[in-house]
Write a structure and sequence with these properties.
This protein is mainly α. It has one domain (4-217). It has helices at 4-12, 21-28, 30-40, 64-67, 69-86, 98-116, 139-160, 166-188, 195-217; strands at residues 45-48, 58-62, 121-122, 130-131. A two-stranded antiparallel ribbon has the order 1-2. The chain has a two-stranded antiparallel sheet with strand order 3-4. The longest helix has 23 residues, at 166-188. The protein is globular and about 45 Å long. The chain binds zinc ion. Zinc ion (ZN) binds at residues 31-32, 67, 109, 113.
Amino acid sequence: MFIGHFGVALAAKRVDKNISLGLLLFAAVFADILFFALVLAGVERMSIVPGITAASPFDFTYYPYSHSLIASLFWAGLFFVIIKIAAHRYDSLKNRVAPVVMGALVLSHFFLDVTAHRADLPLLPGDSYKIGLGLWNYFLASYLIEVLIVFIGLWIYLKSTKGLTFGGRYGMIIFSIFLLVLFTASMMAPPPSDIIGFAIFALVYQLLTVLVAAWLDRKRV
Ligand SMILES: [Zn+2]
């Protein structure tokens, strides 16, 4: 899944309003950040196969460390433990639900990807068991569902927090619309030609999105 993870992070604000949206989003897209870093390191692999699904030209050939179920459970557990320890130091993490919210967001990535991907998500390391419901085989449905998740997430986010300044009131709405426009453009654009260039772009995009989300979230109370 592409932008749907952003919608889920927005909605998570409702469960714990103290955690920065930047951290929530980092947890929700952690698997992809790790994946693109590992692609650049030559550890995990993808290729571009135009038409492999209607909505995505990406063939994820090897990504057990970032996207298998067992690895997702491991990363979710690690986030849980780190947040639990960090809660002693940082007030924003002191709510009892914080470790659960962050761990659940890391794990949510796997299940959202299961709906979108063709059967290429490994349950265990190795090629034996791979799952995926293949929503990406339906261009319009996958596009509309991702957009809908963002709208629902944004609506929940706006109801859970308050903006008192102009930036606080409209910043996150403008940012969400900007991301939706980028998402729409990327769905319409021809497939990228080069994996390394795409992985660098995707990694920078994910990290920038996390930083901007954290910055705009501070403007809301
Ligand atoms: Zn993913």
